[in-house]
Amino acid sequence: MLEFLLPALAAGIGIAILAGPLGSFVVWRKMAYFGDTLSHASLLGIALGFLFDINLNLALIICCMVLAVILVSLQKQKYVATDTLLGILAHSALSLGLVAVSFLDHVRIDLMSYLFGDLLAVTTADLMWIYGGGILVLGALIALWRPLLSMTINEDMAQVEGVNVDLMRLALMLMVGMVIAVAMKFVGALIITSLLIIPAATARRFSHSPEMMACMASVIGIIAVFIGLAMSWHYDTPAGPSVVVAAAAMFMLSQLRRAER
């Protein structure tokens, strides 16, 4: 049992550590729909990976990065409202991915595993992608923490202080895209954003500083991974959704406690 669950546990912990601080920025900046757009587009990356016969993890990363750049560029033009733009790109990319998959007659693709994830099918190579990408993202996040936080508090004030707001916005979207790319295969395109949002929203109730919220969000995510995998093992439920259900349960408990106070 330990040999079977250990890779899944290691993958879940790595994803939770990444999702904690980035999820905090997603909550602070109200970027949940940005994450949904990138996660929906990740299916297009899977289709392109099979089509051009390249590593799926690399295809996912490239696709999410390209879409993140397109999102930031189009948002800056302000020709279309942000929510409209995100809706167009999210559903267009998802539909294009589904259409591309239908043309791959020589490849059998289990769409359910990509839509809802398969955390128990993690390999050593997958762990290398998760932790390799995680080290890059965490390193960039630590280096850019102050300007990102300044931009989140007040963009105009950040510009006065010399922060390149456009560059920081792009960097944040690229980091979110990287996390979605490395986690999508194991948690699923439809629910990966929930792992960014729910632990951070739960941690917000008990945090007194941005740094504390980011750390607590990672811890809550790790606890959700343990509970979700235990549910999956004992009750034969899908691992990725079980992790999200565990995180949602902790969020509801935090709200009840808040109400009692």
Automatic annotation (TrEMBL):
Q: Which GO terms describe its biological process?
A: response to zinc ion; transmembrane transport; zinc ion transport
Q: Record's InterPro entries?
A: ABC_BtuC-like, ABC_TroCD
Keyword Cell inner membrane in the entry? The reply is yes
Q: What is its main location?
A: membrane
Q: Which UniProt keywords apply?
A: Cell inner membrane, Cell membrane, Ion transport, Membrane, Transmembrane, Transmembrane helix, Transport, Zinc, Zinc transport
Note the Gene3D superfamilies from the entry: ABC transporter involved in vitamin B12 uptake, BtuC (1.10.3470.10)
Q: Which GO terms describe its cellular component?
A: ATP-binding cassette (ABC) transporter complex
Any Pfam family matching the protein: ABC-3
Q: Which residue windows are transmembrane per the record?
A: 6-28, 40-73, 85-107, 128-148, 168-201, 213-233
- UniProt xrefs under CDD domains: TM_ABC_iron-siderophores_like
Q: How is this protein situated with respect to the membrane?
A: Multi-pass membrane protein
| Cell location | Cell inner membrane; Cell membrane
Q: What does this protein do?
A: Involved in the high-affinity zinc uptake transport system.
Q: NCBIfam families recorded for this chain?
A: PRK09543.1
Family to which the UniProt record says this protein belongs = Belongs to the ABC-3 integral membrane protein family.
Give the protein name, as stated in the record.
High-affinity zinc uptake system membrane protein ZnuB
